[in-house]
Amino acid sequence: MGTPNASVRKHIRRLPGEATEPTSTLVLTSHESWFVDVRILTTTRKDGTREALPIDGSPISTLEWAFAGKSHTTQPKVPGGPAHTVWSHDVDSQTSDPEMDEGDMYEQENGDVLECGQNIDADTGEVKKYEELWHDVGVQLVGQEKHHVCVVLMADDKSHNTKGMIVRVGNWCQGILKVGEETTVERWQWSHGDQWQIVAKLGQKSLICETTFHGTSLEIGKVIRHHDLDWKTVELYTWL
Fold first, then answer.
1. Considering only CA atoms, which of 212, 221, 209 is closest in space to residue 145?
2. CA of 19: how far to CAs of 50, 101, 134, in Å?
């Protein structure tokens, strides 16, 4: 367990290739280590800036990968060595039978974290070593809230092959819902000091990210029914 955080990926490198970043990747992790990781392919303009992410649900083909679950970190065995993290994929946009997801985490001098591991390259089907560089974007207070707020909601309807998770960390909220083989993701951000705005949506199903915006009115175990699906509050946490 630790302080909830929001981190973006600065690059990925499949050795021996060059480091690139073709996506907008954000990971939100709660105090109890629940997380939602969403990776959306982006388009770069001629001036080097990136186009806004889609918010109308399409095209779903721009969703490179999204998954959610729980992480477990083992601290370094020797001073200066890497921590080791394993991520469970309870929901995965690519598969219902995910491979092991784990990596060694090397903290950099500037506070960024370099993740090193190996997995299957989707382009070649080969197992390759990879590096990912992560940057903590910081978490802001929202509106009149006196403390930072973290909320985790989960949905699990086995009879309809449906699973989902929503994690809010301060001024960020992100969710994934998978019904059969159909995935929907949403990303929200508290913007300009006065309102929540959706900054990305892919897929056609409906999530309830807005429910987390009133986190102090929720309670552990509370169930919110939405479009015949029950979302359960599994974590509430506040910190200064």
1. 212
2. 18, 20, 13
Q: How far is CA 223 from CA 82, 150, 232, 234, in A?
A: 39, 17, 4, 9
Could you list the beta-strand ranges (E) of the chain.
5-14, 23-29, 34-41, 63-74, 83-87, 91-92, 102-107, 113-120, 127-136, 148-157, 162-169, 172-179, 182-191, 195-202, 223-226, 229-239
Per-residue tokens: 97: 């039978």
Condensed to tens digits (0 to 9), the pLDDT of residues 45-98 reads 888 888 999 999 989 999 999 999 999 999 998 888 999 999 999 999 999 999
Contacts of 144 (CB under 8 A, 6+ apart): none
The residue among 162, 117, 144 whose CA lies nearest residue 213 is 144
Specify the pTM.
0.96
pLDDT of residue 203: 98
Decide: 38 and 26 in contact? Cβ < 8 Å. Answer: yes
Cα radius of gyration (the chain)? 18
Q: Which of 140, 142, 138 is nearest to 212 (CA)?
A: 142
Lowest mean pLDDT among 34-43, 101-110, 120-129: 120-129
Rounded to whole angstroms, the Cα distance separating 183 from 163 reads 10
In three-state secondary structure terms, 49 is coil
